[in-house]
Design a protein that fits this description.
Layout lengths: L7 E2 L9 E8 L5 E9 L1 E6 L2 E2 L14 E8 L7 E10 L1 H4 L20 E9 L5 E5 L5 E3 L3 E5 L3 E5 L6 E4 L1 E2 L6 E4 L5 E8 L2 E4 L5 E18 L5 E7 L1 E2 L5 E2 L9 E5 L4 E4 L6 E10 L10 E8 L5 E5 L2 H17 E2 L1 E2 L12 H14 L3 H14 L25 H13 L2 H24 L30 H22 L3 H22 E2 L2 E2 L26 H9 L8 H15 L9 H9 L4 H9 L6 H6 L35 H8 L2 E3 L8 E4 L9 E8 L2 E10 L2 E8 L4 E4 L7 E3 L3 E4 L1
Parallel strand pairs: 6-15, 12-22, 32-36
Antiparallel strand pairs: 1-8, 1-14, 2-7, 2-10, 3-6, 3-8, 4-5, 4-7, 8-9, 10-13, 11-12, 16-25, 17-18, 18-23, 18-24, 18-25, 19-22, 19-24, 20-21, 26-33, 27-28, 29-30, 31-32, 33-34, 34-35, 35-38, 36-37
Helix pairs in contact: 3-5, 4-5, 4-6, 5-6, 6-7, 7-8, 9-10, 9-11, 11-12
Bound molecules: beta-D-glucopyranose.
Length: 751
Amino acid sequence: MRLPFCWICSPVDPHCCPTFRKSWNFPESPVKATAFVTAIGVYDFFLNGEKQGNIFFAPGWTSEKRVFFHRYDLSGKIAKGKNVFSITAANGYALGDISSHHFRENGKCHFADHISVAALIRCTFSDGSEKLLSTDENWEVFSSAILSSDFYHGELCDLNAVPHKLCNAEKDLSPKPKITAAYGGCVRPRERIPAQKLLISPKGEKIIDFGQEIAGFAEISVQGKKGDKLCLSHAEVLDKEGNFYTGNLQRAKAKTEYVLNGENLILHPHFTYQGFRYIRLDEFPQEPVCLDHFTAVALYTDMKQACRFSCNDKRLNRLFNNILWGQKSNFMDIPTDCPQRSERLGWTGDSQVFCRTACINFDVKNFYDRWLSDMALDQSPDGAIPCVIPAVFNGNISAGWGDAATVCPWEVYLAYGDKKQLARHYPMMKKWVEYIHARALNYGEEYLWLGDMHYGDWLAADEKNELLGSTQTDLIASAFYAYSARLCAKAAHVLGKDEEAVYFDTLSKRVRLAFRKAFIKDAKLCVYKKADGDPSVPHNNVYSRPVTNDTQTAHALVLYFNLCEEEEKSIFAGRLAQLVTERGHLTTGFIGTPYLLFALSQNGYTELAYNLLLSEKNPSWLFAVTHGATTVWERWDSVNENGDFQDPDMNSFNHYAYGSVFSWIFGAAFGISVKETGAGYRKIKISPHPDDRLSQMRISKRTPNGTLKVCWKKSGDRFDYEITIPKNTEAEICIPGQSSQIIRQAGNYRF
Ligand code: BGC
């Protein structure tokens, strides 16, 4: 259905978040009424002063090449007589600071240069007649109490500001993106967390602790005198003295301010959210402060939790909870890197790394379908994938980041088994691999991706404070070249594109061969040097750092991506185990972390993998947990042993990438994997690898066919297992020490 939207805008600068408004007289109440609303900016839609839909940040963040409309059911809500329709809008994604990360070709830095809205209201009356009402120049533009609002900076609301008419709207004929029906879920208030504690810091700050970091806003019930001010700041952590810490927010001001009007009110911002656990009351009119008046409201996209996990180790339970919160706070229309500082962007690498875990934890099929469609829209004609989607940033076209174009569609397909969805994203997968192929040819080695700037093994712990880690980016890029080509081959095979499957399979094999020649010498991983002996090829000019491929990440990639011969695996696994043991901890960054434990456990080092999982020593997953984290930190040492913070320029306490370890707990500890021939959990393998230190572990996972459960319990020196297989599922069960069996009947089984 093509809807005849008419865009309108304000011909004058409203100096606040404008409200577009129109009243209509209805001779009778329509029996059915639907509104379709969209905006360049973000908006709330009201009927007779009442917000419709309970959606936040509509129309949602998409590629600038399209904009969504939402549909609101107004049936039974429009009364006979006068009804007022209004839309209050703010800069949001299109015009806010969030889209100012790079200059566009037209010299502007935003998606658009003014707010526009469009609405259609379709009414059906009792005699069957229909009427379509639309935005046009008869709508009026009013001021609003929201004086400013921005994702990064927060909101300023003057409740004494009486909305007044500024002018009539005018038709906005400037070019607009394609308007399509919203899908993939929208952001709504999902969870409410009451304030836990009121703290007075050594500096004398009044701080409220909600006990959990979330992304959303603080809702406050307040009564002040007319003209009183209420100002709050947001923070993720307190410093080691117990003072409020905002040093890591980069440019984000992250403040909410209200001027009160003397009424008893429940306040919250409208067009902004912050990542926070603490708020500081910078100005607050009521004494004493009553905790009951404060609630943290978590906002996130519609997604149902699909996995529950618990075990006898409280630290792991907390880690799981942190991983869930990492996802909740960053699945805000798009998968963002973090919710607090002046980024909050759809960094592709982060999502690539976390996608499998995301699909285990929540139902995110439609969420990814939408984001991957935006990725396809923002893919360059040559196949390059911008490093953030929606593309607001001209960063590197990087291996491990662009590979989100192949890894995410494939992981989502395995998890949900939707071939049509895979087919939708397959052209993008292919184009990305062809892009790598072209880059490789450009550097003169068709089957290796040498050169180009990459983000490397981002934030690896092998060399202190080297953002890219030590692993040669050429190795990472070439490894992903092979992996992505292989995923394309698999996707082509599933989609019945046999010739393309052969093509990509051959390409992947050739890359594998070239990889072996370039990076493996005498059964060791070595640095590739060009003929002239230069190991730093052209790409290290920005981030200079020592390069070696004798790293945990390089070994994990070679093993997990199957880049060595079967008989060499034990040598590389042995070296990986040695690297871990010698250092006494993991050293991997974003790229190596999801595969490290798999590379160990798949090659006979399960106990060592558990050692890493259960370690509390920095760097480790439990280091953050035992240091009070309630989400997953961006850096292994976001806070170090002394309680000092990492570099404030890049130190988020809510980045989900390292949460990817849950895919190992699921896939190796519980041993649950989806077979490629039975995507969507139609055919699975359950091959648990318990560890003595965990006497009880249980997981329940909602699959497209029903709930799958795996649980083990240690009794004496034996492990007992209980497994629930959902209907329409073929499960191959491999219990340690028992012969494997295939189960096709739904039910509860004990082993
Ligand atoms: C982001 C990341 C991202 C990285 C790329 C950071 O600023 O927060 O998570 O992947 O840049 O290098």
